[in-house]
Amino acid sequence: MRRLPPLGSLRAFEAAARLESFKNAAAELGVTPTAISHQVRQLEEELGTPLFIRRTRKVVPTVAGRALAARLGGAFDIMAEAVAQARPRPGRRQATLSATLAFSSRLLVPRAGKFRSLYPGWDLRLHASDEAVDLIAGEADAAIRSGRGGERPGLVSLPLITEYFAPVCSPRIAPRQPEELRQATLIHFDWLFAKPTIQLPNWRTWAEAAGLGGFDTGAGLTFTDENSTIEAAVAGQGIALLSLALVAPELRSGVLVQPFGPLIEGLRFDFVYPEGAEGRPEVATLRDWILGEFGPEATSR
Fold it and tell me: What span is annotated as the signal peptide, if there is one (predicted)?
């Protein structure tokens, strides 16, 4: 528990020390000079030391007074900043969008600055989590969720991107033909850990589609999050079966390459919001932004 003198006494002292005048401190704080003098006197009595040398037209802080005033000034600045941040900023609004960790870090974060330029009156709050938030309860204004495109009770789903998976790796270790995968280190993302109720592409289903057999498709390195899986592929630790949508920047830059197919269809990312919320400014702003970035017209460009 903090043992402090009354806040009014500290404010009166700090203003008087900064302005070197009880009169000017009184004007700043909206009280009388007598009140300032009384509060400072109380503080000196509680601390057991004089804080001012009192002269005819001004007061001069003592050594102890200067030291106390310097620390109090910084403390009051911090308090003022905290209070200002807690107050709603006039003319600004905030929209909260929830998405998975991988989608947020790889596809939303690089576009966050563009949101501010497109919607200068809005602040964007990204909620990154692999746990689905309760949109109907208001935990977020909207979300980007992946699935098979089925019904979501109480929610509206607008299709964005369908994922396709293919072998991806660093160009330093890129195989020339699928048969070379038999000697390669395979990198796996543990889909069952992340989405236990959905069967998603894995090396076994890819090998079947490629007509490639005769090797252990379960061996290699396994990670329980997509970001680590991607980082391992970038580092050249093996060949990963990855969502081409999530590694599009690395493929464009050449950090990763897709040596061959086939492509395996995965889940679909949808923009999701509560039914009847179309007219809410937060939902409308997020919908316009996300459809502009990931809608059919955007992805075809």
Answer: none
